[in-house]
Amino acid sequence: MTRRERQALIDKGELLPLMEAFYTIQGEGYHKGTAAYFVRIGGCDVGCHWCDVKESWLPELHPPTKVDKISNDAAQYSDTIVVTGGEPLMWNMKPLTDLLKEKGLKTHIETSGAYNLSGEWDWFCLSPKKNKLPTNEAFKAAHELKCIVYNNDDFKFAEEQAAKVNEDCILYLQPEWSKRDKMMPKIVDYVMANPKWKVSLQTHKYLNIP
Ligand SMILES: C[S@@+](CC[C@H](N)C(=O)[O-])C[C@H]1O[C@@H](n2cnc3c(N)ncnc32)[C@H](O)[C@@H]1O
Ligand SMILES: Nc1nc2[nH]cc(C(=O)O)c2c(=O)[nH]1
Ligand code: SF4
Ligand SMILES: [Mg+2]
Questions:
Q1: What proportion of the chain, given as a percentage, has pLDDT over 70?
Q2: What are the binding positions for [4Fe-4S] cluster in this chain (predicted)?
Q3: Is 63 left (phi over 0), alpha (psi -120 to 50) or beta?
Q4: Atom number, ligand 1, closest to the C-alpha of residue 85
């Protein structure tokens, strides 16, 4: 395949830069505790300084992989597939989600929502970032809003984001991992005072699973 041919397939979403795929338990948010197959797509330029997968950022480090292979592998493991990254919406997600749905699998996404929406999602987890705000489309699509709390300013940011999602969107505050001891007591107080919010923890890190 020439470079140009490969780029055309990437543009169409037939090839995606796959960093890793693994079967585990969804650790975060509404579906925490549910067995799921994770597909981690490389590439992200949002630049969160506390990102826990910085190795995902450069797309050229991750091999362009056929979505047929990704979906066939996924079907061997689980009926719930979580597509994450990196930032999956930097790529065209339609071919991948079409294949997953043809197989009767549930498609979940973890996204910052900073890029155009593509793909068909049964569950849309939006985690807004100050550096690159979500699109209006992403706010409308969100089933859960998961705001990361690194410092006190993040409570205000979280409220601003919550004002933009649908009324039935489930609202979560999740401590940034390195600040969890400092921020968790503040999150607890905040949620008790503002019970429209729920706490989300990265439970997979406590369980020592991927
Ligand atoms: C690694 S990101 C990939 C998907 C997408 N780029 C996003 O940010 O939503 C997956 C989830 O992990 C969260 N996350 C990343 N680093 C974290 C950290 N250090 N502590 C807590 N949550 C973190 C993100 O906010 C997001 O909800
Ligand atoms: N177990 C587990 N649950 C997760 N929920 C969201 C994750 C992500 O990195 O997107 C993640 C992850 O990396 N592992
Ligand atoms: S948007 Fe997601 S993958 Fe990108 S830097 Fe932020 S947390 Fe990491
Ligand atoms: Mg993670």
A1: 100
A2: 44, 48, 51
A3: beta
A4: 3
Binding-site members for [4Fe-4S] cluster are: 44, 48, 51
| ipTM for the complex shown | 0.99
DSSP string, 69-117: HHHHHHHTT-SEEEEEES-GGGS--HHHHHHHHHTTPEEEEEE---S--
- For the Cβ of 111 lying below 6 angstroms from any atom of ligand 3, the answer is no
pLDDT in tens, 32-74: 999 999 999 999 999 999 999 999 999 999 999 999 999 999 9
CA-closest candidate to residue 110, choices 160, 38, 176: 38
Instruction: Name all domains of the chain by residue range, CATH numbers in brackets.
Output: 13-207 (3.20.20.70)
Of 40, 58, 126, 129, the one to substitute when testing ligand 3's pocket (max ligand atoms within 8 A of C-beta) is 129
Distance CA 10, CA 66 (A): 9
CB under 8 Å to 61, separation ≥6 — which residues?
Answer: 19, 42, 55
For the segment 142-179, what is each residue's pLDDT rounded down to a tens digit? 999 999 999 999 999 999 999 999 999 999 999 999 99
| Global pTM value | 0.99
